[in-house]
Specification:
518 residues; alpha/beta; 7-stranded mixed β-sheet; 6-stranded parallel β-sheet; 18 strands; 17% strand
Length: 518
Amino acid sequence: MSSDPTQPSPIVSLVKAPALTNAYALSTLMTPPLGLAYLAGSLKAEGVSCEIIDAVGETPDQISPLDFCDGFSIGLTMQQIVDKISADADVIGLSCMFTNGWPYDARLATLIRERFPNALIVAGGEHASACADYIMDTCPAVDVCAHGEGEETLVELVHCVRRGASLEDVAGITFRNNGAPQTNPRRKRIADIDGIPVPDWQLVPLENYMSRGIGHGSFIARNMPLMATRGCPFQCTFCSSPRMWTTKWSARTPSMVIDEMESYIATYNVENFDLYDLTAIIKKSWIVDFAQQIIDRDLNITYQLPSGTRSEAIDQEVVDLLYRSGCRNFNYAPESGSPRTLEAVKKKVKLPRLLESLTVAAKRGMSVMVNIILFPDDTPADVRKTFKFMIQCAWAGADDITFVPFVPYPGGELYDRLVEEGRLPPMSDDYAISLLTHSDITTAKSHNPHFSGRQVHYIRLLFLAMFYGFSFLFRPSRFVKTVRNLWNKKPATKGEKTFLMLISRLSSIRSSNAGPNA
């Protein structure tokens, strides 16, 4: 790193790898990199030069076969990513959100190290928080793993590097100290959530997302990601959120969120906002204030809560305000229809109350998705109760439902228990690769002693067929609307958008001769 004032100032390069998928996956992680934009905004506020290499955003139509498994990447190739990193980068941050992407991230980090032997390579995100020891043990290219919220950590880390100071006092990281991994004390959650600088979207090729309608929600429109709250106060055993975020839930001041929305409408002509909050609706007073201010400002937009929310605060008053303010889609995540299972996984949800809330929302015109998981300890009786609950959801008016086998990501209490019991192998790249098929509609993996993978696969197909069959039977007009929406390629629900994206991906794979049946 040069201190010559005539030389360009070193910059921080933040890298988002391509989306990984297989041919028949029902979901892909093709979303604008909100986390990296937040990091860039914090660096900018500190006067630190920064760039973002967003592999998906740069080339969202490019599909390439992976050389280490039967899957595909969507976005820049590994070499194209490295070629785009500035030669003056002295700190290179890798977004490592999901374990199924780690084998790619590790290869990418190694290639970056070959090109930038003196740069500090930092891994951050959910996977880096949960598996820092494994990353440090198996990937020599990575120098630091950042845990939890990254804004304050990255800023302090960059300043330490440029002063040549030790990293021993930087809270919230695991780093190599004389060759041996050292984990520093955890950094406290950011107290002043309103004080976090807004995302720096000027560094992201947003138009490539917006012009294609790419986003987390249901609509193919000019979508923009947004975060109004952070964290989740609950401790579900299958979730890594407690380790990543702790159980602190923080909400931004509604007026500041809406100010940000207005700025995006003016700058990017945004039509729809996807709120990426883990659990957006916790306090009724907050969501009422938020929705009422949108109405008062007459923003004339739609917004969605595609990541899931709670039902307790969503009553007739809230639903009416949500709809009037532009909310059109949200997810409930009961996860199971079995009270025994819900208690076992520490899911604090009252199913009768959820059905009441769902009924009110559907009658108001909301599109609601319900998320269901087949857990490793579910018995046939639990599955039957979940089937019954699924039919009740269809009757109540749910438009879509997901039914997936439990995906054991590191960082959750349930994952740790399954490893201790020998029902899961220790963390490895092979295990991470196996997670790529978690949403593959043609197969399923089982970690449940009562059901084989084949049985889980057929249970899922039966579950989906029964839900949509009952949904169309109870509301025949919905079938006509769905056919019309698919024909016009204007989805109104998450299921319709998922179907269209799957068909588009299969067509792209075949036309690129990447397989299958190319």
